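User: Here's a structure from my thesis project, written as structure tokens. My advisor, Dr. K., wants to see whether a designed sequence matches the one we expressed. Can you design one independently, without my sequence as a hint?
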């Protein structure tokens, strides 16, 4: 029998995005470590809006044209020419409130631009920091969904799949899920949910190791916590704003 619920798919890597019909879907960009956690945090703390850009050059150029905070990373470190990085702790309210943030990151903002180029019907961003806001929105909208994991340079990563799994656990009764990557994500999340940080550690998650090497354990712990910045960032006319 035909199931009339909207569809939910999980795209585990940007390299697989061409397989999915983004034009019909709400695309949730997921980059738990750390782009989409930082986006939620900056907006939660009062940033006016965020302009996600796909290159450091564009970020610097915009910084010359408008009054804004230019920020971003390459390989997890502040990119050359930018004053701020991609740590959620850089965007506390006293610093970011009422400011415009222009952000470029290795994987997260790149995937957002891929979604735009492919004509995504709607783009929002998700992370554990705003898990409830994202799941409530998806349940209410009743659109087809693609959970798009930013991964690491096209290689599948653990943390983005964990978040996809957490989201699926919350919304699955409202969707039809004919998708093995979604089932894998949910299975992984069930296995890890009692201690996400410990799971990343014991399974040598690659970006966990990279950020630990940079002394950023605090960032990882923050990014694995639920609902610390529970707003819904939605992309419209070049900007991510609170819905
Ligand atoms: C990314 O977009 O690849 C990340 O957010 C990297 C990071 O800053 O940890």
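Assistant: Designed independently from the structure alone:
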């Amino acid at each position: 029998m035909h199931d009339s619920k909207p569809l939910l798919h999980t795209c585990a890597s940007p390299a697989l995005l061409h397989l999915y019909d983004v034009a019909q879907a709400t695309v949730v960009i997921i980059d738990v470590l750390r782009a989409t956690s930082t986006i939620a945090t900056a907006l939660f703390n009062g940033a006016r809006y965020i302009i996600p850009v796909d290159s450091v050059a564009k970020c610097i150029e915009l910084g010359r044209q408008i009054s804004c905070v230019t920020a971003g990373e390459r390989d997890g470190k502040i990119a050359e020419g930018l004053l701020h990085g991609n740590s959620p702790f850089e965007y506390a309210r006293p610093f970011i409130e009422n400011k415009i943030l222009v952000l470029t990151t290795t994987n997260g903002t790149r995937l957002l631009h891929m979604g735009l180029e492919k004509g995504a019907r709607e783009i929002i961003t998700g992370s554990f920091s705003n898990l409830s806001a994202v799941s409530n929105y998806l349940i209410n909208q009743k659109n087809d969904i693609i959970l798009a994991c930013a991964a690491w340079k096209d290689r599948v990563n653990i943390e983005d799949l964990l978040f996809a799994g957490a989201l699926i656990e919350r919304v699955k009764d409202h969707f039809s899920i004919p998708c093995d990557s979604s089932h894998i994500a949910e299975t992984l999340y069930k296995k890890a949910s009692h201690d996400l940080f410990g799971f990343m550690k014991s399974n040598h998650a690659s970006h966990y190791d990279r950020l630990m090497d940079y002394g950023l354990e605090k960032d990882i712990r923050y990014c694995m916590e639920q609902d610390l910045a529970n707003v819904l960032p939605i992309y419209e006319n070049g900007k991510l704003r609170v819905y």
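When you compare it with your expressed construct, this may help: The first helix runs from residue 35 to 44.
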